[in-house]
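so the lab meeting is tmrw and i was supposed to have these ready like two days ago... anyway. pasting both below. for each one the top line is the aa sequence and the line under it is the structure tokens. i havent really looked at them closely yet so no promises
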Amino acid sequence: MKATELQVEGAYVFTPDVFRDERGFFVSPFQQSDLVETIGRPLFPVAQMSLSQSRRGVVRGIHYTRTPPGVAKYVHCPQGQALDIIIDLRVGSPTFGKWDSVVLDREEAKAVYIPLGMGHMFVALTDDTVVSYMLSGQYVADNELAITPFDPELDLPIPKNIEPIMSPRDTVAPTVAQALEQGLLPDYQQSLRLHDAL
């Protein structure tokens, strides 16, 4: 498995070997030993695993969890194709406001490790796109926050050839600057401490 650090500090994309033959293919999108070698620790204890199914054009996010408690994620796409985007929302981080993107699909079986305090979103590029999440914490509605994916300061690479389909919550979400002004964004040092304690 190949690990590549993304432009946001602490986030990685993992690209596993895919073994193909006349029957189909076999792949392991998560391998603990490679994660430990890359980030120096095992994956966080998994508190919840979730799946979402989306049709082409669905935009989910930018989502993040109030910190504390915060939630780290390990994400992959076992069906379809998604443009996955990670945004550093940790105030005080050397990469605050920066983002990176990865195309996740079944063929390459890439996965993304997203540390606590980051924003996460994806755009479904095909119908019946399934995204799988391993989470360090369980979903608590009151702790789940959002930033608009159309924040002009972020200028995210949302494809122009799709008609975005969004939830009501994501449609009215604030910009990064508005969330910062309201004191809603995670603190960098606190996020690191909480992540280390997972």
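ok protien two:
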Amino acid sequence: MLITTFWMALAIVLYTYAGYAVLVGVWAAAVRGRRPAAPTFEPEVTLVVPAYNEAAILADKVRNCQALDYPADKLRLLFITDGSNDNSAEALAEFAEVQHLHTPERAGKSMAENRAIRYVTTPFVIFTDCNTVLNPEAVRNLVRHYADATVGAVSGEKRVLNDGTASGAGEGMYWKYESFLKRCDSDIYSLMGAAGELVSFRTSLFKPLEADTILDDFVQSMRIVDAGFRVVYEPEAYAMEPPSFSLKDEWERKVRICAGGWQAMSRLLSLFNPLRQPVVAFLYVSHRVLRWSLTPLLLALLLPLNAALALAYGGLYSLLLAGQALFYGAAALGWWRAAQGRPAGPLLVPLYFTMMNVAVFLGANRFFRNRQPAAWAKAQRATAP
């Protein structure tokens, strides 16, 4: 029983982080190109920018939006600064074309988006974070996919600017891997959750979210998938942003995301049903659910299981135990070097991997104890691009 449990746990861990990538990579390559290229499509669209105490960068964000390669008469700009107590209003006042919404109460990003959508009169809406820079073709590359009536949402790509720090290199490395999986999921059928840095929706499909929603972008896009529409991933529409200011800030961000993952799983139960949408259920469980639930638990169990087997049988199990010890030792050393302001180098891989999985336990704890507010403390980022 101990041997069987160990090898099954190891198989699920390897599948989650490597086997799934290989499988969807081959699957996506086999189906890629079957759908015709998206044509030129230029509908009216509203670009919504939620911002909380971002006065210092609002003017730069507006200028970035003005520089987008899209007909100016078809692109509306809406900034919402609910809860901000800086001089956001003054910063936006010089831009007559910007519609500015503000109330002094802060209720979180989900509620701000719920309020903003009431002012959107265009058939498509795009949300983007204030601290990002969009490439000029971003809007054009997003909305062209809506010529296909089966597409309910389109997500852009998040690109993290590597500033040489451990948090920057780690976050950038993770997003390259994640972007590969997103591209494959989208090519196979649909993206399994959009990134809020740059995401668009058919306005008619946008449904108000619960006030306590943590991962607004993920839940909104997956409910659209649940309704029978596809979410397309468009890597040629991208949002560039600086990395977390420090490893500590990145750690806090990961814990919040994991708390949001547990909340999302509890609210998207119908996606687990393989009889409704078998491909969706497979992609959702493989790409998202395993990472947020079973796999981190199995990783934690592998160490004591391996130790017990090494004591009983030695040989291969001793080698595997030594490998685990070296891996987690490297992660600890990488954390220490990063805390000292020194580059983690190759230690970054075990460090970031371990961080992600430990964060799941803390995130789950926050979710079950209802300790993760929707209006979280604004993450500190490195200097804006």
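from a quick look at the 2nd one: The CA atoms of residues 334 and 340 lie 10 Å apart. The radius of gyration is 22 Å. will dig more after coffe
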